Amino acid sequence: MTSEPTSLTGTDPFPGPPPGCPAHGRGPGALHRLYGPDAEELGDLYESLREEHGSVAPALLHDDVPMWVVLGHAENLHLVRSSSVFTRDSRIWTPLADGTVKPDHPLMPHIAWQPICSHAEGDEHQRLRAAVTAAMETIEHRSLRRHIGSYTQELVNRFCERGRADLVSQFAEHLPMAVMCEILGMTEEYNDRMVQAARDALKGTETAIQSHTYVMEALSRLTARRRAQPEDDFTSHLVTHPAGLSDDEVREHLRLVLFAAYEATANLLANALRMVLTEPGFRAQLSGGQMTVPEAIEQSLWDEPPFSTVLAYYAKQDTELGGQRIRKGDGLLFAPAPGNLDPRIRPDLSASMQGNRSHLAFGGGPHECPGQDIGRAIADVGVDALLMRLPDVQLDCPEDELSWRSSIASRHLVALPVRFEPKPQQDVGMPPRPMAVSAPRSGWQVGTLRTDPAPATTPPPAAPRPAPPAPAPVPAAPEPVRKRGVWQRLLRWWRGE
Ligand code: HEM
């Protein structure tokens, strides 16, 4: 359904709804607000907007600033791919240019223009992005996967003997930070304080500025160290790239990469684990071998993209999108969450999207996420290794007690409490060993794990994470009773495949 063309800016007035009209409670122009009590369930709100306006809908941001929300899959793709018509440079946004959006607007951190590749376009975007992608290309994927595995082992060691954990605060929020500190070349900065600071800075609490400063100081120290003496890590390659990034540019791109990677990947891990734990179809397919962990991760990227929306794109000229008249200077919300649920491409939301990677979770066009392989690797290896260590892991609360913290940009699971039979620690330099489950609480097993007792092994004492992890022998050939699937997965994992 397509509504009459509307305009967000220009001469069109915002008449209030007549008394008694159901639109009362909405904002000016009877438009829906994407914030406040109206927006407690943004997913439902997007569906009402789709119903009312079609694939591009007018809505209101904080302070009732108008913004188009792009709800259609094809329209979102058109938005990100049409760089001659739409830009990420907010300086042309009419409400910002005319002073309607004040410097203290709550979404300013997302909106304010910064000298980073996300906001640049044309030659400047190419210069900055070339340095970022070239530095990413130097990351060796096999050793990256080994690091992810070692960090997963280390994190699971912290709680495996207790039989209980919160997989959001004790796992999903830690693993991406540990891996990103390794990639950037500042392993010494990874600790609980750094995880807390990043979480706090993104939440926008009263201590957000202080936390942001804490992270930025670490990135400044790193930039100065690598400028003085480059090594073989992401930061050094950024510093020495022929694009000639200044110290400020290096630091700002380290911030972009660290926060984008941390937030998105923490969300992806939490979402994927939640799906595995609560959706019986997922469990059955994983345990039956009809679905691999990477496929489960991809399904999660369709159903719950880690960034629900990206603020924002801006029209460089008058144009039309999804039947709406877009004026030069209008803002448009790129919206993977409703775009991935577009009924034109997913008439049946319960149907599996296996083998189809055309979701919008990583954006598209010139700004498409350059770190997607790293995000996928963290999620694939992390989830696989965790489930290998804790095959009997189960949700430790009724499913309807799980809660989310939502903002326009993303939706975070607050906690994912789980329980399992306590397990001994394992050597973090070794691939995860599936532990026997004496009395599984359910028939579910990840992959093709055996349920009969494993041969008695004395678990090695927990060792500190080696950096880099020493090559370890491939585990001895399995006994005939073991099914082949799990060992093949283990060998593949250990070889970094
Ligand atoms: C599952 C994890 C991730 C998701 C879902 C994700 C998603 C996204 C999205 C939606 C964008 C914006 C695209 C646009 O503006 O059209 C983006 C941009 C970006 N992401 Fe990711 N990301 C993830 C992980 C990462 C990682 C691990 C890194 C770095 C190692 C990274 C680095 C970046 C950078 C540098 C940009 C800006 C690119 C540009 O504007 O040219 N992301 N990401």
UniProtKB/TrEMBL annotation:
Family per similarity comment: Belongs to the cytochrome P450 family.
Region (Disordered): 1-31, 424-481
Taxonomic lineage of the native organism: Bacteria, Bacillati, Actinomycetota, Actinomycetes, Kitasatosporales
InterPro entries xref list: Cyt_P450_B, Cyt_P450_CS, Cyt_P450_sf
A GO MF term: iron ion binding
Domain of life: Bacteria
Biased composition (Pro residues): 456-478
Protein's UniProt name: Cytochrome
